[in-house]
Design goal:
Helix 15 runs antiparallel to helix 16. It is globular, with a radius of gyration of 26 Å. Helix 1 links the parallel strand 4 and strand 5. It is an alpha+beta fold. It has two domains: about 180 residues, 3-Layer(aba) Sandwich (D-Maltodextrin-Binding Protein, domain 2), CATH 3.40.190; about 200 residues, 3-Layer(aba) Sandwich (D-Maltodextrin-Binding Protein, domain 2), CATH 3.40.190. The longest helix has 17 residues. Strands 1, 4, 5, 6, 9, 10, 11, 12 and 13 form a nine-stranded mixed beta sheet that branches. A two-stranded antiparallel ribbon has the order 2-3. Strands 7-8 form a two-stranded antiparallel ribbon.
């Protein structure tokens, strides 16, 4: 039991008045302690601690002990906690951890058993589906996320170019931008990996993973991705991912960036003050396809409750406050993305906080009916790091595209990935 006696009681107190003495017994008040963990930067830590204080003020019978750190430290600590059964009562989790720690749906508390304290009616069923494993609601997504193509419209306008609609439009833009050292597009390794997958999926008509987590792409499909990446580098559509530098965004050296919805404010700070117009463009396509084909969405992050908690009621009360309360929404704003919770979103809308580039990118994602739920395996670092290695083999004339694709296919098999067909 994780409880403590509040230091509000002195046990039995004696009081004296007028014509005699009177014994007054002050009841001992018991305070339940629960634990909460999250990852983030100083800004997130600060507003979360403030929000926890507000919760404790509303519920003085509950004390929340907080544990937080930056991402890498949190991830390592979480693994130890989950293996040892010492995870916090309420925790922020990454969507990939559902498969890692709860493939049978029993790794976290079943949140639908907490209906009296946790209001799930604010969440559409399809959104809650991201937090289900084996039919059990393990976690609730806070906001959704997807790779998005951000376009510096000011730069494109300066060249008399329209916002790109197709993959080929970026190659046409490079013909006029490259002489000035400007790239029509750029991005970090994972972002460009997913960009190349979307291109190859449209050509092949396959999803990279099937529902059984088998890779559906064969050597020809991997070769298509490698050749597409190398063509973009060779024709100056983008720099190699190893050369991607965030500061070049502010220098207008990148006229477009592939980045997460949640990274909008991180990559584009105060564009209006800098006299620059940044927009969230539609997802690029090959001719004959619809915007969103081959692109994926996932929960930006989720909240879960420990299956080992001794205080499910109190944990659910805190979780409901974090997801649905105006107090928490006011402090968090859109720092973790645009809230899925109807209550939280309505509050932000009524206070004028649903605006700006990140909100616009969220709408592009939410309003696209073609975008697919992401299989978390597709974000495995070894997949995209080895893909870049295969691309470099060709870029530096060490192998042909066919040889690099054969190597990559074998590499994935050697690392335990199964292939369909």
């Amino acid at each position: 039991m994780r409880k403590r006696l509040a230091a509000l009681s002195l046990g039995v107190a004696l009081m004296f008045s007028g014509c005699g003495e009177e014994n007054v017994v002050l009841k001992q008040k018991e305070q339940t302690e629960i634990t909460l963990s999250w990852w983030g930067n100083d800004t997130r830590n600060e507003y979360t601690l403030q929000a926890v204080e507000r919760f404790e003020q509303l519920h003085p019978e509950i004390k929340v002990k907080c544990s937080y750190s930056e991402w890498s430290g949190y991830e390592a600590r979480n693994q130890v906690r989950m293996v040892s059964g010492t995870e916090t009562d309420v925790m922020q989790i990454n969507v990939g951890w559902l498969s890692q720690y709860s493939s049978d749906g029993k790794g976290y508390y079943d949140l639908e058993k907490l209906g009296e304290e946790l209001d799930l009616s604010n969440f559409p069923d399809d959104m809650l589906g991201y937090g289900r494993r084996n039919g059990i609601l393990n976690a609730v997504p806070i906001a959704m996320n997807a790779e998005t193509v951000y376009i510096n419209k000011t730069v494109y306008d300066s060249y008399g170019l329209d916002v790109p609609r197709t993959f080929e439009d970026f190659f046409e833009a490079a013909k006029v931008m490259a002489p000035d050292g400007v790239y029509p597009l750029a991005g970090a390794s994972k972002s460009i990996w997913l960009y190349c997958i979307s291109y190859a999926e449209q050509l092949s008509g396959k999803h990279f993973f099937d529902k059984n987590n088998n890779i559906t792409f064969d050597e020809d499909d991997l070769r298509t991705m490698i050749e597409f990446y190398n063509r973009m580098v060779d024709e100056s559509v983008m720099p190699k991912v190893e050369d991607f530098q965030k500061y070049n965004i502010d220098k207008n050296a990148y006229a477009g960036v592939v980045a997460w919805v949640s990274d909008a404010m991180n990559y584009f700070k105060d564009p209006i003050e800098k006299g620059v117009s940044i927009i969230a463009a539609d997802y690029p396509v090959e001719e004959g396809h619809e915007s969103g084909d081959g692109w994926y969405a996932k929960p930006a992050t989720l909240y879960a409750v420990s299956k080992n908690t001794s205080h499910p009621k109190e944990a659910a009360m805190l979780l409901d406050f974090m997801l649905n309360s105006a107090e928490w929404a006011e402090l968090q704003g859109v720092e973790k993305g645009i809230p899925i919770s109807r209550k939280a979103r309505d509050h932000l809308d009524s206070t004028g906080k649903l605006e700006g580039l990140q909100y616009e990118a969220s709408l592009v994602m939410e309003e696209n009916e073609k975008i697919s739920p992401m299989n978390s395996l597709i974000e495995n670092g070894e997949l995209y790091e080895d893909f870049i290695s295969a691309c470099d083999m060709v870029l530096f004339d060490k192998n042909s595209a066919e040889e690099a694709a054969a190597w990559l296919c074998k590499d994935y098999r050697d690392k335990g990935y199964s292939f369909s067909g």
